[in-house]
Amino acid sequence: MALIELISRETVKIPLVATTKPEVLRELVEFLYESRRVAEVDRVYEALLAREELGSTGLDGGIAVPHCKSDAVRSLTMAIGISRKGVDFNSLDGRPSQLFFLLVAPPDQTGPHITALAEIAKITKARSFCTTIVAARDADEVVKLFRTE
Amino acid sequence: MGGTIEKVMVYVDGTEQSIAAAKCAICLAKETDAQLLAVYVVNTRALVDLVHAHIFLESERSDYLRDLENDALRYLNHVRELAARKGLFVETVQRSGSVHQEIKSLVEEYAVDLLVIGELPRLQSRRDELYDETERAMRRVGCSVLIVKDQERVERLFETLP
After folding, report:
1. Which of A31, B108, B118, B144 could bridge across to B18 with cysteines, CB 3.0–4.6 Å?
2. What is the per-residue DSSP string for A44-80?
3. pLDDT tens by residue, B36-95
4. What is the ipTM of this complex?
5. Stated pTM of the model
């Protein structure tokens, strides 16, 4: 499944209420659980935390890309989260992270997983676009920023 | 008319859409007597980009590379088995690099008449960053391209193919 097909109002959470890194991860995973995209919150949450232990996925420019593999999802699954105030994510530049692209993939879908992450990597370089996303009022506006009419 | 389609290449990436494309390519090859080639590209370009973007650690690149190579073997074997069920031989090729560039190179190298790919994303993006690699390959190859849709119909065709 292409990244564009993963972006919908059901997978965009604005605003995040979490104020710490673990809370952000849990909030986004629970959000995905509510729409049945994740079968089990704890397994995905623990996998994301384990990945963060190896090295933070907080990039510079206020963006973070937490990701993991888990068999608690049946297909490639993504959530976009926006924190108005920003959260300390141990990012590369030390700045709080406001824009989160959380990606979870089944272990046997490495190809699509890599492709989706590579697309996210390109998006993170488009700084003015990311600034526009962070300023979006709601999930519908974020979706419109990505999709054609 | 002989030789309208002599060599068919199907691109497989492990998605349902690409497996449907493989089944369609098998049907087509059987009906036209064309040679069949199945290709998987290990997207090492993306792995490099992810490390440069600091999304991947170097250790992750190695882990995911191993997984991609295992996926390549698995999905190419699967296509071989699907073809064998219909009494067909399929040559399988595994390459590494940029997906659309490798597909283009292979089409030229093997003098492919028809590239078969799975259905492209139905949703279009405003963003160039979300340009699908398979779609990029479709636009750049010099041969005709068949985009396989209607997976249910393809499944029926494949199952009823002798």
Report:
1. B118
2. HHHHHHHHHHHS--B-STTEE--EEE-TT-SS-EEEE
3. 999 999 999 999 999 999 999 999 999 999 999 999 999 999 999 999 999 999 999 999
4. 0.90
5. 0.87
Residue whose token pair is 């097909």: A5
CATH class, B7-154 region: alpha beta
Q: Which chain B residue shows the shortest CA-CA distance from A63?
A: B55
Token pair for B145: 């391209």
Of all residues in chain A, what percent are helix, strand and coil, respectively (each to 5)? Answer: 45, 20, 35
Amino acid at B6: E
- CATH superfamily of domain region A3-146: Mannitol-specific EII; Chain A (3.40.930.10)
Please indicate if any CB of chain A lies within 8 Å of the CB of B129.
Answer: yes
Listed as ranges, residues in chain A with pLDDT below 50 are 149
d(CA B11, CA B117): 6
CB distance from A17 to chain B under 8 Å?
Answer: no
Comparing CA positions, the residue from B83, B96, B104 lying closest to residue B34 is B83
